[in-house]
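Let's sit down with a protein and look at its sequence and fold side by side. Please make up or recall a protein chain and show it to me in full. Label the sequence line and the structure token line clearly, so we can match residues to local backbone shapes. Go ahead whenever you are ready, and we will take it from there.
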Amino acid sequence: MIKIMIVDDQPLIRDGLATLLGLRPELEIVGTAGDGNEAYEKAQQLQPDIVLMDIRMPGTNGVVATRLITNNITEVKVLMLTTFKDSELIFEALQEGASGYLLKDMSTDTIVKAIMTVHSGGIVLPPDITGQMVKELKKTKELEPSHEKIETPINIQELTERELEVLKQLGYGFSNKEISNVLFITEGTVKNHVSNLINKLELRDRTQAAIFAVRYGITTFE
């Protein structure tokens, strides 16, 4: 059974999610929290497997709470539950160690499936929504005259052609199995490529690799 903690400053959403997810036999709701600081304190006490984390909350927001949890409680994973308008904060949360994100209006089945994916070591980056977010962020940055163009890190040149292909698929949030199906290689080979490219790019994990791929245009969305 997967232990879940739900964090949201709105009691209706927090309690509603707890009720709906608590009906699933594969999940156990071990606690809830109303802000990021409470989330961090309770995560230390309750040791959930996954924290469903809102981003915008008074006091300590979800981005800061994600950093505190992922940096200090190694066994706990964070899955963001947010709204489309939080695009920039979502990417910040992912860079701080979140294992993915979902929108609050997604179905219970979708949320449960995402929880299972994250629990098994995967990441959740809905391609269609991520693509829209990237486009919106680009528009925003283009309107900022002081914004400096992001240069692609030079160490990307160290990647082989196959590692670049794997990195691109990571940006879509694909698992090793899904990547192996797309590229017609074994899961073991994919795992090796993922490990190699993470080391070469000096990243922490596959989530950071996925964000790297999106940020620098290796993964593209039409």
User: Anything to note?
Assistant: Strands lie at 2-7, 27-33, 50-53, 77-82, 101-103.
